[in-house]
Amino acid sequence: MKGRENDMRGRLQDKAIIVVGSGTGIGAATVKQLALEGAHVCAADINVEAANRVAEEVAATGGRAFAVHVDIADETSVKEAVSLAVAQLGGLDGAHVNAADLRVIFEDSDALAEDLAVFDRTLQVNLRGHLLCTRAVLPHLLQREQGAIVYTSSSAADVGESTRPAYAVAKSGLNALMRHVASRWGPEGITANCVAPGFVFTPEMRASGQLPQELLDGMLARVPGTRLGQVEDIAAVVALLLSEQGRWINGQVYNVNGGALMR
Ligand SMILES: NC(=O)c1ccc[n+]([C@@H]2O[C@H](COP(=O)([O-])OP(=O)(O)OC[C@H]3O[C@@H](n4cnc5c(N)ncnc54)[C@H](O)[C@@H]3O)[C@@H](O)[C@H]2O)c1
Fold first, then answer.
1. C-beta 46 within 6 A of ligand 1
2. Residue 176 CA to ligand 1 centre (angstroms)
3. Structural domain of residue 156, as residue ranges?
């Protein structure tokens, strides 16, 4: 569990929140942050073993979290996972839809060379999957006449990049989906926002030792700051957007990138 600087204990007291894509990286950090702030959290992930470990870590520090399996490429799986979450949480106050299939990102080449299977898979999970999650959680939020959805986008939606077109298209589409949800259901008490991270050096990336130092140095050189992004930097913003303090924030893309992209 993170230290005192992220301790907003009680801000999310007894809020029922699902984090989809929570086994590792940013989602895992978000589960821990939300629980630290008092929320009861469902950690949903295709890698349910990893989500279980996150839930156990939360429980070991006195928080409340449990894991469920979900594959957001599959509508039935999404419906079942959200039903399980709602049954155990007794309703729903918020959702962080964070999952992305990042296994294919290195094959996401350019518009001429793109393998259409990579393009389709990227959109299936990173965009269509988020629509499926939206459809599954919204009725429960509406039942409480108030709720918040936060999607994880990326600065890739706004930076013209010479590679990974499918990833950027999916994240741009996600920003558009978010604005639609904010606009359509804002009048019924729902907020929808995106958090758009720049490069975040996750604990799993660090542990893999696979990212060359030159790449990390290059990422840092783009940041007008002193360090790379950490998963907790993103979790802190998600927690704000899911809290009462974030109630008047709607339809926004929050760029959290240390200043690497200024808009
Ligand atoms: N790390 C970065 O530099 C960075 C930058 C910008 C945006 N993002 C975005 O942040 C989010 C989290 O990324 P991360 O870096 O923590 O990566 P990660 O791979 O650690 O986290 C992604 C999680 O989603 C899960 N997932 C993958 N496919 C799924 C599916 N079909 N159904 C359910 N769960 C699935 C994975 O098991 C994993 O737990 C992603 O949306 C990513 O695009 C990351």
1. yes
2. 19
3. 12-256
DSSP letters for 180-213: HHHHHHGGGTEEEEEEEE--B--HHHHHHT-S-H
Closest ligand 1 atom to 23 CA: 39
Report the CATH number that the domain containing residue 89 is assigned in CATH.
3.40.50.720
The pLDDT tens digits for 115-128 are 999 999 999 999 99
Angle between helices 116-123 and 165-185 (to 10 degrees): 30
Q: Which ligand 1 atom is the nearest neighbour of the CA of 103?
A: 19
The answer to the question of residue 3 being in a domain is: no
The active-site residue, picked from 167, 185, 199, 254, is 167
Q: What does the pLDDT look like over 209-255, one tens digit per residue?
A: 999 999 999 999 999 999 999 999 999 999 999 999 999 999 999 99
Domain count, the chain: 1
Residue 211 lies in a domain: yes
Is 254 catalytic? The answer is no
Say how far apart CA 93 and CA 145 lie, in whole Å: 9
Q: Which atom of ligand 1 is nearest to the CA of 77?
A: 32
The pTM of the whole model exceeds 0.70:
yes
